[in-house]
Design brief:
CATH architecture of the largest domain: Alpha-Beta Complex
Number of helices: 10
Structural class: alpha+beta
Strand content: 15-25%
GO molecular function, one term: cysteine-type peptidase activity
Pfam families: Peptidase_C1
Protein name: Peptidase C1A papain C-terminal domain-containing protein
Order of helices and strands: HEHHHHEHHHEEEHEEEEEEEEEEHEE
Largest sheet: 7 strands, mixed
Shape: elongated
Organism: Luteipulveratus mongoliensis
CATH superfamily of the largest domain: Cysteine proteinases
CATH topology of the largest domain: Cathepsin B, Chain A
Family: Belongs to the peptidase C1 family.
CATH class of the largest domain: Alpha Beta
Helix content: 25-40%
Amino acid sequence: MAKEQINIAAVQAAVADTDGADWEAGENHLTALTAKQRRIRLGVPVPDDSHRAALERRAAGVRAAGPQTLDAGPAADAGAAASFDLRNVSGQSYVSGIRDQGSCGSCVSFGSVAVMEGTARYARRMPALAVDLSEAHLFYGHGGTVGVTCLTGWLPLPALTFCTTKGITYETEFPYTPGNSGGGSAPSGWESHRARATGTADLTNKIAAIKQHLVDVGPVTGCFIVYTDFYSYSAGVYKHVTGAEEGGHCVAIVGYDDAKRAWIIKNSWGTGWGMGGFGYIGYGECLIDTWSNIGVTGVRLRTWTAAKKVLGGYGSGYDRSGWVYVQDNGWLHVGGTTSTAHVAMFADLLTAKGKGAFVNAYEDEGLITQAYAY
């Protein structure tokens, strides 16, 4: 096994000897693994030769483009910021925590779920929104119905299409284990506790559009070719400098920095890789922005809010016009099967607000259908 460990000194030397390379390599839990153990963590099928050649040409164009050419398009016309980071928007982070996919090629599920969670929080501007979704349900459940396994890998578009047509449940309902070693499955009635995307947005090879989606909507997937040196990345802007091609991988893009000419990525290899699980990868590097960049247009939830306070209310003379602002969840429309039921629920929620009482409300895609005050 020692012979298969990555030679960090050799990677560091290659970085130092490569023009335009400015990143740091270091030991981590991946660099000590065998090549086979590392590769199982890659789960995006590499495109065939003809498709690959076209993608490489696009990527070369991105790397060679000057700032004006690179940023041409709607985002540039709209005056997109020179940098943006969903981990720090006016001091607030809308990015969910770093996870570890372990020894399974399930990276597409983790990248796609990160897109769902980040979009759900950012669309509402609610950084503390409780939305911990099940990578296991997406990968082993939905993916399993079309033959997806730890060895086959997957692609973001079909994964996020399942998130749109079916939705996915929460982590508490179907916890993730590598290879589904726990033998789990989504429980009966999971549809009452789920997140569903309103649609997908294919932003592949549209640099300005990717940036604008990040600023306006939320994270985007990024698929790229992994070379051996990538496992040892610890800081800086990654650029391939040495090592063999290992396979395809998927991450979530959560920001960008034009000064660095780089995307900010959220990986799924635990906090021991990169900068606490995050990293920078250069524009056009290893097909990161020319292969498969998929976002979602929005996320709707079915879930209980748990103990929260009502912080605001709005109503008008129109029928069923009551809205309440729920702590960490934002504005939700008050439901009710009849106008009388709507008024009664709205009144109860406003009473809870006046008393500073906690409520537990059931949200059905933006509509409160049940609520308990205590």
